[in-house]
Prepilin type IV endopeptidase peptidase domain-containing protein
Amino acid sequence: MILCGEFIIFLVVYITSCKIIEEDRDFNRKKLALFIFFSSLIMSYLIYNINIPMYDKFRGMLFILFAVFISSVDIWTFYIYDIVSVVSTIFFIILNIPCGATDVSASISGAVFCGILSWAMKIVSNGIGDGDIGIFAMCGAFIGGYGSIIIIPESFMLASLIYVVVYILGYREKQLAFSPFILGATFAKFIGSDIIEIYMETIKYIL
């Protein structure tokens, strides 16, 4: 199952990156595809060994495939393809159909509320990019329910921690893509980690 999913994402990466290379001739689509293939394979294997229900393992591995692909492209190009975030959002909603109407409605509400709230943040503060709105919606659909909104503050907390590390290391002018923090916070919530608690403990340690 893992290898089948990896093969599918490899094809998606290769086809999508054909469009990227038209926009940036220096972009190495083969290098990106290989990186995504092996990194998502390792992360999928780790999820497979987590003690959670099999269906959640399946959903988690699929999320990893999307997350690694989106993050890798964003890190390399600082661009998020809307078609990827829209398709993945719909995909995670449909994936809940076998679980019943309650899970489907929770997935839809998660996508809608995360999408609207992140869009409002974009309008008010311009603190995130347009592509990040779609990623928030996708993550809301994956986690489901109103509780998925916590992903938004947790992603900013995770980003601030990493920025502190980057600043200390001397890369003060380095620009970082934001989607990996959104996806990282979502994955942490999925496996039961509390970014807020980690953030507060780190701040206490620094102070």
